[in-house]
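pasting for ref. prot 1 ->
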Amino acid sequence: MNHPCTLKHPSRALLFRSLSPAATWVAAGVAAVFAVWSLSATLAWAQEWPTRAVKLVVPYPAGGGVDVMARALAQKLQDKWQQAVTVDNRPGANTLLGTELVARANDQHTLLFTTDATFTINPHLYSKLPYDLDRDFIPVTHLVSFSQMLVVNADLPANNLTELIALARRKPGSLSYASYGPGSQPQLATEMLKQKTGTFMVHIPYRGIPQAVMAVVSNEVPMTWSGIVSARPHLASKRIKAIAYGGKTRAAAYPQVPTMTELGYPEVDANVWVGLFVPSHTPAATVQKIHRDVMSVISDADFRQREVEGKSYDFVGVGPEEFKRYIARESASRNSTLKASGVKLE
């Protein structure tokens, strides 16, 4: 026979059996009320989020296309959430610095606004990252995708891709190209082009795409790949010229610029996607709320026309689960591209 003192913590079922039928009914009712109250409290907490200022960390310099979109979105979310929403530019190390900042954030009000480089290129480029992408982040939404243009300085004696390749072959190593870091889309695209054409061009990395484009404008470096947002003012002033487009179809804003596929190089991929992420400890209800609110902003016709379609972006807008599956597929594809292009850390 067990000593009575050994039953210090009887189970709920045992406790209920020890009560009278009336008392059991009351206890069950109290438990049900408590469960409903707990669920209501959890939902109320999620609906009240954000409870303070929200920070969008952009691991790129100010002024580029990703930064511009983040700022436009932040302004609209600030109006919706009735809390300050700021953009914190943390460029460096091919997005590693800003990404680590969010991974280490111990709150639920620091979000990551970044590109495919963070999640589909860096894991294959670096032997070790200062965070675990699967463990430390939850994908919220794949916002937009866009393609980059191959642009060259206006004075470069090459007005199309054929002439550029001929120039590179005639003077091996005399041409250089700018990028926004090792493993960035400009480097991947150019290294693949080099491989396919048997040419040699020197890689010059910069801190961000605005700096890379300005290097081409000033003729410090003769060429780079750029999104339309960063290239447009310099194309308008005729300080640079576009000779190819990395998308599968021509850009509506520049229909005269042929695609790499049309030019015979479908393997040269210059496509970028932009997504929003939160630290992994963020509650599921909050993740869904952020997604809903972001979609509400982008669904606004004026915002969509001005900040998405007007800047030659393709709207995507998928939710967390679909975005997670997309990242997995893209990561495998990028790994193959990196291996084929021979890109390595410098």
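and prot 2 ->
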Amino acid sequence: MPEAARGRWRDLVERRLPEAARADWPVHRDHCFARILLDNTCNGPWRESVRAPAWANLSLDQLGAATDLGEAVLAGRADLDGLNRRSLALRGKLRGVPPFAPMVSPPECLRDGDLVLRRWRAADEDAFAALNADPDVMRCFPATKDAAASRVEARAFQRRFAVDGYGPWAVEISGEGFVGVAGGARVMRVMPFAGCERPGESVEIGWRLARSAWGRGIATRAARLALSDLFGRCGLSAVVAFTAEANGPSLRVMHRLGMRASGGFAHPALPPGHPLEAHLLYRLSADEFESERSGA
């Protein structure tokens, strides 16, 4: 299985994409296609999280996501120019406005009483690593994460604000400090549900909190605050949320936010038969959010 996936990836970037290259495409060489697909999959310069050669060291999940993104380019369901500009923006090399960024730049923080959603700091990395190492917090994720993986993830979150104009915020409670993460993230992988066939066109709202923040309504408050920014400053018309069927706490937050159940799907990051493979999808439009918030 790993060898077949690696062979498919190499054939895609070394032969199929270069052979299909059009005059109006921004790149034509195999290493350029690989750079674009890998950066957008990793949400940062890929060598920061994957050792070279990528084909030998990517996880099967990363390999599948990057390959599916390339297949979407070939099928005309992904804009190669936009993906290239996003890759360059992730590397700090783009001249001009990133392709997906809203007109208004992100603020440093959002506030609701003692709750603060703020941009990431280097000092958050240890607390975030501890959160990601907690098996109770990560019970509905495929696995816990070590400190190195947590550091890469936190830095990718921060880059999203510069590149996409929003991202998962660091969550802080006055007097307690960092307690987790919540916010919107552009979905850059192909997902098996309507609206996400074209990578980058759907935005997911999500949250992940330390156990000390559970049972206090913080996830719902943080998500509402992030949604206000996504639907307001960012001008989004709708978001999605999804989680494993077994994740009752997150499903309850989705209901409190007024999100609509929209069926289920098998998550492509998980192998067939995995206990977390079955996921539930929820949707929320800007109009529905405003109606819920106003009590209409």
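The longest strand covers residues 177-186.
The chain has a mean pLDDT of 94.
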